Amino acid sequence: MPPKIHPFKTILFGFAFSPSLKANVLETARIAHYFNAKLILLHVGEKTVEKQKTIDGIIAEIEHRDLPIDIKWQEGKPYDVILDTCKNQHIDLLILGALQHENMFQFYVGSIARKLTRKVCCSVLLLIKPSAVRVACKHVVVNGLNAPDTPLAITDAFYVANALDAQQLTIVEEIKQSEIHVTVKDDRSLKKANLVKERLKHREDFRIRKILADLPASLTNTVKVKTQSIFGKRGYSIGHYAEVVRADLLVMNAPTKIGLLDRIFKHDLEHILSDLPTDLLIIRR
Questions:
Q1: Which range marks the domain in which residue 17 is found?
Q2: Residues 194-215: pLDDT tens digits?
Q3: Same domain, yes or no, for 174 and 83?
């Protein structure tokens, strides 16, 4: 099936009246413009004259005046309201914004975001460093995990990189340390372990090259592409890598397991959600 060239046609931003509201709205509007999408702003809470005046004042400062924007106000539980709105409004991308040092971080990016990433019907973008004035996105990192949804995540990562005019896209292949099957005891076993690592890297690179070969050249030829194999705990390793290379955006598959064990033990995405290294785009369609 050919990939969608415009995967995000309708964007929903769930906003609260926090100190970062202006930066979040301007950043979200900018993203919607680059994605050529309609923007819906949703506040879960009471609508007041003061709140309306505040949001109208921020919207008046949006750079791209032709952007279609719809403001919605609804009372209720944030999780339920956001979940229902995404479904009823056929949302392609849900954006939630918060800074780690704010109280709203736990409200939006904590338990609610984890629940939404399991249940919401669309992709989710978590903004931890919004800016009222554009800061160029230079480096996008995407997981190259051996999973059914990875080709979609990589495709959307290329779309985003092109839309935001990023200079580099790195596909990270996380390999479990347990796949080496060699206990290093001496120089001989160390050499054997290194040989196994090289074989695993070649295996992963071959798999990624097959994914890239199926993508249109219009997506892949306009950005510098790099592959990087890393060994370690999935989720934690790629999060650490994104932080070390100072990536502007990390793209990941949405979690698929929602069983009891998955709720008790952290899966790949849970490691990242507990300590966001950068803005995080979670792909689901």
A1: 10-127
A2: 887 888 889 999 999 999 999 9
A3: no
